[in-house]
Amino acid sequence: MLKHFLEQSLQGEMEAHLLEERSLGKSNRRNGTSIKRVKSNVGEFELQTPGDRSVSFEPSIVPKRQVVLTEQLEGQIISMYSRSMTGPPVRLFRNRQTSSGNIWIFLVCQ
């Protein structure tokens, strides 16, 4: 559950990053994924983290070189999943400050 949510969030951040790059007239696109081993309270697992050709993508939900998830982040994710069991799908609204303004990322986890 935690792994799935984080991977979907990273994909959403990559989409927002590529949209911003295109709006600035830069030619950038996806360049596969890499494996990142992350530790959490529920154990250790591998995340598929997306990359881009210009190597300018800086994820914010699980930043580069961060290998331990905070208890606060884990708690928020588990809380959102538990609420979605009785209601609509989980939606994460993440505001990211960029050079050209704010980007809102909307994720729906199913």
UniProtKB/TrEMBL annotation:
Family of this protein: Belongs to the transposase mutator family.
Free-text function comment from the UniProt entry: Required for the transposition of the insertion element.
GO molecular function term, any single one: transposase activity
Protein's UniProt name: Mutator family transposase
Biological classification of the source: Bacteria, Pseudomonadati, Bacteroidota, Cytophagia, Cytophagales
Keywords: DNA recombination, DNA-binding, Transposable element, Transposition
GO BP, one annotated term: DNA transposition
Organism: Emticicia agri
InterPro entries registered for this protein in UniProt: Transposase_mutator
